[in-house]
Amino acid sequence: MKSILDNKPELRLQIGQVAEVAGYLWQKGWAERNGGNITVNITEQIDDALRGLPAIGGPHPIGKTLPHLKGCWFYCKGTGRRMRDLARDPMANGSVIRITPDCAHYEIVADLPVAPTSELPSHLAVHDWLLTKGSPYRASLHTHPIELVALTHNRKWLEKDAATRMLWSMIPETKAFCPRGLGIVPYMMPSSVELAEATIRTLADNYDVVMWEKHGVFAVDTDIMDAFDQVDVLNKATQIYIAARGMGFEPDGMTDAQMQELSRAFGLPK
Length: 270
Ligand SMILES: [Zn+2]
Hints:
The chain is α+β, with helices and mostly antiparallel strands. Helices cover 40% and strands 16% of the residues. It starts with 8 loop residues before the first helix and ends with a helix.
């Protein structure tokens, strides 16, 4: 079957990376049913030939006006689609969309008219905010990492940076590869405007990964593999904490001095 990805190696690479990450999310048990979402700003991989393609769906309203997304293109998981299916066939379970000049609608320019995720307005609001501040980040990920979600069922870990300090102290790589830590958003209704706004506020408070209490994480980074890696190192640290507790003791954790030494050695932001 002909695809808009034919002879577009850079775009194929980006979407292939989304499929690879979707497979990891399923393998890790973080993506039950149609759980989780991925959106990637692919504007830099779009050439004139792609720009000239006719839309096969839309224009559909986004539900808000996002002035920095004029002319931007995104790959997004399809609404109701499963990560494990996206891993196998990203063009049948995700959608390529472009934002119309009024910044309030999108058109589907893809192989199949797959409707994008119902979380599109909140994901696009995050991408709009990233562009506002000149961020190089192009990918956003929402998923349900089991151990991290379990951690939020205890109020102790919902205080600002309580979980960050504990997770960083489990193994040095956590701070090195998730150097801004874990921001916390208290429980809010999934898909709500309030949750989207609180997520952007928390990202703006200098975090790349935000924990939604008793729900999941929302992570941003330059590409989807890096966003996944940040969540993966955090969840690994949580598993080490659980393993120590399972052995019957509270883990000591690295000392503050050891963590400050890491920050100096690697030039970390916190
Ligand atoms: Zn969710």
